[in-house]
TrEMBL record:
Domain Nidogen G2 beta-barrel: 388-621
Organism taxonomic ancestry: Eukaryota, Metazoa, Chordata, Craniata, Vertebrata
PROSITE patterns cross-referenced by the UniProt entry: ASX_HYDROXYL, EGF_2, EGF_3, EGF_CA, LDLRB, NIDO, NIDOGEN_G2, THYROGLOBULIN_1_1
Coiled coil regions in record: none
GO molecular function: calcium ion binding; Wnt receptor activity; Wnt-protein binding
Native source species: Oncorhynchus kisutch (Coho salmon)
Name the UniProt record assigns to this protein: Nidogen 1
Family matches, as Gene3D superfamilies: Green fluorescent protein, Laminin, Thyroglobulin type-1, TolB, C-terminal domain
Highest taxon listed in the record's lineage: Eukaryota
Amino acid sequence: GEGSLEHVFIATILQKFCRKMIIHVFPDDNTFVIFQSQINTNGFLAVEEPKVESEYLGKMPASFGMIAIFLGDLDNSDGVGKVYYRQDSRPSVLLRTIDHISQAFPQDDEIKPTHALIITWENVAAHGEHGRGDGLDRKRNTFQLVVASMASASYAILFYPREGLQYISTPVAGQSVPVHAGFSQGLVQAWFSWSSSQGPYYRIATDDEASVRQLSEETNSGRRGVWVYEIGTSPFFSSITPGLVTNLSPEEGVAVGQVEQVSESPPRNNGEQQEIEFPPYEHEEEEETPEPELPPTIYPVQYQPRYPVVPESPQTSYPEPVQTSYPESVQTSYPESVQTSYPDSETCASNRQKCSSFADCKDYTNGYCCHCRPGFYGNGKDCVAEGKPQRMNGKVSGRVFVGNSPSPLEFYNNDLHSYVVANDGRAYVAISTIPAGLGPSLQPLSSLGGVIGWAFALEQPGYENGFSIIGGVFSRQAEVTFLPGNERLTIKQEFKGVDEHDHLVVSTELEGRLPEVPHGSTVQIDPYKELYQYGSNRITSSSNRDYTVSLLDGSVQTKTYQWRQTITYQSCPNDEAVRDVQPTQQLSVDQIFVMYDSGNQLIRYAMSNKIGSIHGGPPEQNPCFTGRHGCDTNAACRPGEGVQFTCKCSTGFTGDGRQCYDIDECRETPEICGSHAVCNNQPGTFRCECVDGFQFASNGKTCVVDRPIDHCQRGTNNCDIPERARCSYTGASAYICSCLSGFVGDGHTCQDIDECEQGRCHQDAVCYNAQGSFTCQCRPGFHGDGFQCAPELEKTQCERDRESIQVSSDTGSFSFFRPRPAVSQYIPTCDQHGAYEPTQCHGSIGQCWCVDGNGQEVPNTRTGPGQRPLSVIPPPIGPTTRPDVSPVAPGTHLLFAQSGKIEHIPLDGYSMNKGEAKALLHLPDRVVIAVAYDCVEKMVYWTDITGPSISKASLEGGDIISLVTTDLESPEGLAIDYLARLMFWTDSMKDRIEVAKLDGSQRRVLFDTDLVNPRPIVADPSYGRLYWADWNRDGPKIEMSNMDGTDRTVLVKDDLGLPNGLTYDPESQQLCWADAGTRKVQCMDPNGRNRRTIVEGIQYPFAIVSHGRNLYYTDWRREAVVAVDHTTDRETDEFLPQKRSRVYGIATTPTQCPQAYNYCSNNGGCSHLCLPRRSGFTCRCPDVVDGSCVERNL
């Protein structure tokens, strides 16, 4: 039962012949393993000697350290259930763990595990549950734990069966008790007493069965049944941070052959092995072999396609993390002065002024660096005196929603002031002019200004605070997630260094939502620890923070938020001496005080900060490290032996250290500033200022005669950029900065005024904000200048057809998006009521024909020149209907795909006639993704990714015809050009776009470069245009080209997440898309202008189609078809299919084809493919040529 992870089998089977048998696993000296651990067949990994079963079964937290994945009274003694373990460091395994961790923590980019401990409990049953005797009918569960180890942190990955747990409780003391999952440190003994108390713990599942069932149904990593946690470092769980992605990612859905099928077959037998993530057992000789490939992609697998993660509503239950303090270990080293600066390839001779006045410049091989002098610390660019209190000033702006309020509270340039007593790590922060609606709810955010606490934290031996390492110029972005409401807030801060008053300068922006703290309530924040991980010019940290809200009625609420932040900075690359910075340090924060002063509209924070080791150990006793030394606030504490220490006044002060007094350099050395200068004394330092008529020379020290300089003309002013601000020269060397019209600010910093929020446009107009300006545009159906809009009389279909043809003919060559003109356009004639005349004629060709009420030509009524049709011949009878094809009634319908079928919904105007909805095509065992419609032959086309194939069938009945069945992997988008008789499709696995005739012949690849995950594609036959979207998670985009592949252009690349659906409306010439990443539907014109949001906050759109004033999209989460009126920007209707499952592609079946023309209507005289473009067409050969093809451009 015992053995080294490297000297027994790579995988070892644990069998519980005696239910108390435990396998011990010890780490080798030459390998890095998380901790000495013991694997228990009862579903947990112990980090210390476990107790007897009666002391831990049904009890969480446990009295000893453990990771519980499925803690219960489990049985594997029947030969069917098994437990495997192995340690693995192969790249294929480590890459797989990195994939899971990265998806759970998208902002972490320094994840490089060195080892993984993999434990698999396979087909284990609940103890005491018996079946028919052979064990095959017992309920069994399979689950897996992977512990990935790095030098600075470790992660636990928990896998549960995606198809659900077969049992969720086990017998304990004669009762059925739900299993437990979570982390427990066990009992912790106090340092100065013999008593023990419960250490920190973190529960994933609570005591109710519903939370256990959610283990296989929900996630914190974007993948169903997969839970990822950062668990700190050995030997303690110094902090437990759950994954951030609480919604199921698109990877749980459709991609190349990896489809979560809607199966109607019965569930697997209870005795059958359930799927797991990592192979549980591999022979020793196989250790060097490659990792086996995943199963055939049409079967359910743990890995699903990598779609971007989409935020959604929070989970129904949340863990209860607990943070505690751990004493620091003693280090003997003490930090030296810091040696960093900003990069420059020049020498100190010409750049010395770029260093702090308290720093020296040193030349290196590749350039120079700045070094703070003894008695100062910083990065050389910014240096401050050791022991001296530090101040931070800045501005705070934000747009914050509070509670469930639909409207944000906005504020701009509010003052922030902070003060730190550097020799004891105590920090104070105040922000002014915070309105009463926001102030109370800001109380939990002590770290809003607490970064100065990290920057000047009290340093423990061998560790350095933030300012010592990176100075005062850096950027910080923090993401805060509040539980259980899942409100999210983003904090962005820019630290701009130390100003002439020795104050650190910062600007802060807040964006997001806060849970509401009622007015008059007080907030108490528990002490917490935060791990800072230091990389190249990048620092990351995370923590869980508990806080208590005391309401006016005396009730108390305990809440939690997760805090993750990234700090970026620029170190000096020229320094040849590599600094020895601890890769991971722990910030300990306690004595936290928060208060909102409603009378003065001030939010105040105070806290004590220490920076030190991440490992446990007895606390430092020297007063210099505890902050209890009694030194003057302007003195540095110098530690001695034991608890001995001395106090030394900071530079610029004098005294015995217990009492320090400012040195007045101006009085003691009057000539210190030189001639033509005035000396101004300041605490700890002094400033020299040139007298009137003089200014500092380039050395920054000598005052010379002041020659007037027009800083506005020379561009040496500090006004905002000319696009936002105006610089006005006022004589001598003075100037004034002021913001341009449309902007607000002090002239040095100007921000755009969003006039659209001020209601400047008419109520029937759409407002488009731009930098410094805005435009108003009347909505469709109204006319005017946008400031005044009046309704238009609605035109009939015949009148609209006439108008569109006449307008397109009149625009001439000045319209970029213009139909290519025919030799002579046919213009329909309308009667006095706007209806189609029953007989229509085209004078240029001398033909007439009959039309129905929709303007559609009646077959067999067209006559020759000089003749008019006399009668209507009935249309021929079409083919009979197959049992799996249901013909649709005349009129416009919506077609949409579900797994295994295509359904249709009749449209009554723009309303969905839900009562008449039914299946059009039954396609068992198929997953239909894209749907398109040919209005000429009234055929529906679709793509199927299980085949894969592209097929068609008639709406009027007939056989299903397969068109393309080879050289496909995942056809997910489909578009039809009804004029040129072409179809286009995307393949998201082959990463290409192809074209073919409508019968599937003459295939040609249009694009196979710069595509990662192409999905939706739409065609505009009138202009010979193609539009498609690529949801590449690293760079989503919407592109456009001609149908012959020329003029490829990126239309949209900003503010996209997962553009799943795309549609083009030829009437309004609007390109619209549905984005499951930004959760918006947006539209713009085809050249990328006038982008606007139609609806936002939607759930998970997949496909979209336009029809008149409505947009219809399918939604995976709602499992519905949703109607949106893009003239009023609101949702109007929803259709829920009778059988609920994911819905995919969607299309409309118009009663007649839009009046249009392109040069390929009759194949353009080409021998093979005629591909339209904006100003003509191109004859192209298919990829498989028969030798008789001719290519040409016309």
